[in-house]
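## retry 2 of 3
previous attempt timed out at serialization; input unchanged, resubmitting
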Amino acid sequence: MLQSKKKLFSQGFTIIEVVVSMLIITIFLAIAMHLMVVAAIFKARADQYDRAIVWIQEDLEQAIAIAQQYEQNATPYSTKCSATVASNGLAAGLLNDPTGIGGTPKNFGVRSFGSTSFTMTRTADYATSFDPFKLLRLNYSVTPANGGSAIATISTEVIANATFKCP
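## retry succeeded, writing output
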């Protein structure tokens, strides 16, 4: 009789074992679902950042094209080469001349990345550049149209090709 009771209890799982295993599976699934949501959020942010960088790069390429042509045909070289103050130098001319990059700040309107609208702003300044007579610092910022912190910011310097003709 003792032996038959032992056999009876040794078959199958107890209710506690089943509940514990279900609890472990539930916790694992909850963590996995949370990680999937977090991954989706990071993917969406990365996509927005990527699109913002492309938008910045589009304008930067135009600014570089303008800088390549600015005062390039001045012979023998640009009169701005002999500037005595930064506001008369090539960088200031590149920023302020009608044939140059154009004033600061410049807003580029609104673009939508996914379901969110963003605006891009470019500010330009020669005074804060490494060489205020020749280098124009461009600062780009892409922010949500309804306010908030920037999703992409880039700062770079542009030099007019005419600078290389200066004595």
